[in-house]
C-alpha cells in the first residue's frame, strides 16, 4: 500500500490529453513539492516534472504538472505512442524522521 | 552531464553479504545527495534512503532502516548500498539517483539487478 495514491491505469488515443492524479496528505504533498517520473519498459525511471510544475531540460512541454492542497496531477497533451510507460509521483514526507514516498504508479496505455 | 554508473548484476545465496556501487561523474560528487530506490519484480518504486556525500550523513526509510547500509567514498565519487545477510525477498532492481534540479531522485543510474536464490 503506497503512501501516495495513483490510479493503476490510464489510457488515451494519439493526440488526446490525459491526466494522472496523485493523492497524498498534509505531511507529504500538502507541505512539500511533487516530482513526477516516467519509466519506459525495461529502463530506469526518468525525472519528468520537479517542484510541482517544472520541466527538466529536454522534457517536451506536452508534459505539465500541477498541485492543489494534498493532490497533484500530471497532464500529457498531444499523446504519442512513445508516451506509453509507467508514471510515478513522489514527495517528501515529514512524518517520523522524514522520507521520500512514491505513488504506486500508473500504467499509461496509448490505444 | 551528470552520469551515475552502477555495478553489474549480482546472483547471491540467502545469508550472503553484498555491496553494490554507484559512481558519479560529470558533476561535483559532494554537491548532490545520492538516493537508493528499490523496484521489486513487476512492482513500483520504493525509496530506501539517502546519503549526503559531503559528510556521509544518512537517513533511511523506516521500512529499510536496519536492513541495509548506505555509505559513500567521496574520494572516488562512489556511493554504496550493502546488506550483511541477504534474503530471497531482497531480489529486486536497485537504482541510485542523485538530486540535481530539486531534492529527491533526479538523475538516475541504470540499475543493478540483485537476485537472491538458493
How would you sum up this structure, described in words?
The complex is a heterodimer of chains A (111) and B (118). Chain A is an all-beta fold and 111 residues long. Chain A has strands spanning 9-12, 18-23, 34-39, 46-49, 63-68, 71-76, 85-93, 99-102, 106-110. In chain A, strands 1, 3, 4, 7, 8 and 9 form a six-stranded mixed sheet that branches. In chain A, strands 2-6-5 form a three-stranded antiparallel sheet, with no helix packed on it. Chain A is globular, with a radius of gyration of 13 Å. Chain A starts with 8 loop residues before the first strand and ends with a strand. Helices cover 0% and strands 49% of the residues of chain B. In chain B, a hairpin with a 5-residue loop joins strand 4 and strand 5 (45-52).
Question: What distinguishing features does this structure have?
Answer:
heterodimer, A: 111 residues, mainly beta, three-stranded antiparallel beta sheet, 0% helix, B: 118 residues
What's the arrangement of secondary structure elements?
The complex is a heterodimer of chains A (111) and B (118).
Chain A lengths: L8 E4 L5 E6 L10 E6 L6 E4 L13 E6 L2 E6 L8 E9 L5 E4 L3 E5 L1
Parallel strand pairs in A: 1-9
Antiparallel strand pairs in A: 2-6, 3-4, 3-7, 5-6, 7-8, 7-9
Chain B lengths: L2 E4 L3 E3 L5 E8 L8 E6 L5 E8 L4 E4 L8 E5 L4 E6 L8 E7 L8 E2 L3 E5 L2
